[in-house]
Amino acid sequence: MYFVYILKCSDKTLYTWITTDLEKRLKQHNWEILWWAKYTKARQPVQLVYSEKSENRSLATKREIEIKKLTRQEKMDLINKK
Length: 82
Description:
It contains 4 helices and 3 strands. By secondary structure, it is α+β, with helices and mostly antiparallel strands. It has a single domain, classed as 3-Layer(aba) Sandwich (GIY-YIG endonuclease), CATH 3.40.1440. A 3-stranded antiparallel β-sheet has the order 2-1-3, with helices on both faces. A hairpin with a 5-residue loop joins strand 1 and strand 2. The longest helix is centred in the last third of the chain and has 13 residues, at about 55-70.
């Protein structure tokens, strides 16, 4: 099972990616667990504001790309619908 997720960073930017473990990934983004995410390292703390399940990596990646193409307002609308 894969998840597509959106984080809201401390500077109010939105970060979208995929993972198989949301809880672990959130800890990594907040550097509770050592990790390489340079973008979120400088924008801590981050907050999980949206996630959706995907059956496999291919579908998750396609959905991630769709979300990344959205405008900020469209992403906020997606977040607020959940």
